Every structure is written in C-alpha cells, then in structure tokens.
Amino acid sequence: MEQKLKVGILGATGMVGQRFISLLENHPWFEVVTLAASPRSAGKTYEEAVGDRWKMSTPMPEAVKKLVVFNVNEVEKVAATVDFVFSAVDMTKDEIKAIEEAYAKTETPVVSNNSAHRWTPDVPMVVPEINPQHFDIIESQKKRLGTTRGFIAVKPNCSIQSYTPCLAAWKEFEPVEVIATTYQAISGAGKTFKEWPEMVENIIPYIGGEEEKSEMEPLKVLGQIEGDHIEKASLPKISCQCIRVPVLNGHTAAVFIRFAKKPTKEQLIEKLAAFKGFPQDEKLPSAPKQFIRYMEEDNRPQVREDVDYENGMGVSIGRLREDTIYDYKFVGLSHNTVRGAAGGAVLCAEALTAKGYIAAKC
C-alpha cells in the first residue's frame, strides 16, 4: 500500500482502545491519526487522558502520546480527519447503535468491537477465516443507510473464538450439538488484578449476557446471506456456561460435541491443521500463518504457555478424545483481547481493505 489509511479509534482510553493502539503501532497499512473518547477526556493529550490507567504490557507508543483527544460525540469533526474508525466505545447499547450509524452516515466505515450491532440483520459479524463472504451484505446495508462508502462491520464476542473455528473446520461432519463451558479472563471485563482484587483466588460463575452471546453468535457466523439479511444457521444447537476465572488474558473452553456424520479423531485433527481462509490466502498483515493448531500434549493448551500463539491471533486446541455421552470433547484457548477483540477487528479491517470496502476518502 503506497499510502497508509488514516484511522480513528473511538473509545481510545479503555482497555480495548489501548489494545487497538498497541496493535496498530507500525502497522503497514493503517496509521492512527485520531483518538476519540468521552467528553471528560476531550481536549487532553492522550497521555494525560489515560494517566496511570495504561493497561498494556508494552509502553504507550510515542506516536499517540501527544495526540489531543477528540470528543467522540462530535461525529462530523472526528470523521473529517480519518478514512475509517475502529469502535470500542463504552456506552449503552442504544447509544452505541446510534453513534456507530452516525459515523457510517458521514461515509466513514466503522469496524466495531462492540456487541450493539451484532444482530442488526444487514451488519456482517465476521471471523475473517470463517465467513468473509458475509461482507457482501454491506451493499444492502449501504442502501438502508443511504451511503456510498459508509457502513458498519463487527466482530463476534471474545468468548466464542476458542470453539467456533473448530465448528467451521469440521463443517462437513455436520456438528449438531455443542456443550461448552468457557473460563474467561478478567481482561474481558476491561480489568486488571490491581483494579479487581476480589478476583484473586476466586471464580465467579456468572458473566452478564455472555451465555446468550456464546450460544447464538456462532450461528450467525455460520449462517448465510438471504436477500437483505444474514440468516443464522439452525445447527448446531449450543448450550454454554461462562465463568470468570483469575487469569489476566486468555479464554479457555471445555467443549463436548456431537456430529451427524461421526469422524475419526485423526480426521478431526487433520481438518484443524488444514483449516485456513481469506486472511491466509491474501497474506493479510495480522493473519496468523497457522490459524488453528492441535497440541498433542495431555496438559496443553495452557494460558501461560499458549495464549500468545501467533501473536495472540491463533487458536490452540488440545485434549481431543472420544466421550461417553457425546461423540468427542476437547479444550480450546484463544487470546480474548487480541483475536477476541481488537486484533480480530484489525484483521476484519484488513480483509475489508483487501476486498475494496475500505479505501482512502480522497
């Protein structure tokens, strides 16, 4: 790419906003030029606005420290400075829906980490290796919004990343039932142990709204476009429990699965290793070379050892074995704030750019 696209980050001071900034440092296609946050941060430099709340393990990039933060509500003003935006705003669902549509109507593409538009019928919810064809629905969305280049695309919830790729890799064996329990890191709530000391040596068996997302969102990802909307898949039936555990980064899933066509263990492992998609074919900058890896060791994957596989963009699967009630069971691991949040959105933006949906405004 001859000239980098100009990027804005909405909700830049929060944990996911910070992750966007870290991931986009020295990105070959994108340059962060505008940061926007709540009115209380507006007018301050980014360094001042964040203060002692920088949560990444790497230092704040020098390039953003002196950028003056915009008021995220000044939509036209922010949109005039960028080619597209990433959205990680912390608002009510209705407020997020409204502000993301407002940005799209300024002819500014919005790639969102938020859940507000995941079930808007003409908004694609994409894991780029699995369903990049869903970006085709953007043309219907543009007609509804009355735009020529503005639209909204979203990535799915962080909790589904450690098992939904397997469902896609095993599609030909027709998964019909899935039981999953996810063990979710505290960074999924935007927290560190310093901010959430009650999570030390603790487990909380409830995460608001997470089980519904974990059961339903894979079905939209695995669905298909029908007319002006995306129709969710009818199978597999998914039941999920979501538990908060004392881990900083990394969502682990323990999964039981039943197939209509029972494969061998060797076939399942072969399909995982061979599974790839548009990001790998196009060699997108953030794409993992090996999206899914299978680990033979009995005690893997582990968060400490494996959460950063492929720079946090890969998925690790292990302990695949036959079950006494279901056909098979396995354990999956994914990085919740990289693949599951900001990194997944960056990969979506790269795919949208490669497909021509995102380009320089002038």
TrEMBL record:
Keywords in alphabetical order: Amino-acid biosynthesis, Methionine biosynthesis, NADP, Oxidoreductase, Threonine biosynthesis
Catalytic residue list: 158, 251
InterPro entries: ASADH-related, Asp-semialdehyde_DH_CS, Asp_semi-ald_DH_pep-lack, NAD(P)-bd_dom_sf, Semialdehyde_DH_NAD-bd, Semialdhyde_DH_dimer_dom
Domain (Semialdehyde dehydrogenase NAD-binding): residue spans on this chain: 6-138
Matching Pfam families: Semialdhyde_dh (PF01118), Semialdhyde_dhC (PF02774)
Gene3D superfamilies: Dihydrodipicolinate Reductase, domain 2, NAD(P)-binding Rossmann-like Domain
Keyword RNA-binding: no
Pathway involvement of the protein, from the record: Amino-acid biosynthesis; L-threonine biosynthesis; L-threonine from L-aspartate: step 2/5; Amino-acid biosynthesis; L-methionine biosynthesis via de novo pathway; L-homoserine from L-aspartate: step 2/3
GO molecular function terms listed in the Swiss-Prot or TrEMBL record: aspartate-semialdehyde dehydrogenase activity; NAD binding; NADP binding; protein dimerization activity
EC id: 1.2.1.11
CDD domains: ASADH_C_arch_fung_like, ScASADH_like_N
GO terms, biological process: lysine biosynthetic process via diaminopimelate; methionine biosynthetic process; threonine biosynthetic process
NCBIfam families with a match to the protein in the record: asd_EA, PRK08664.1
Family from the record: Belongs to the aspartate-semialdehyde dehydrogenase family.
Protein name: aspartate-semialdehyde dehydrogenase
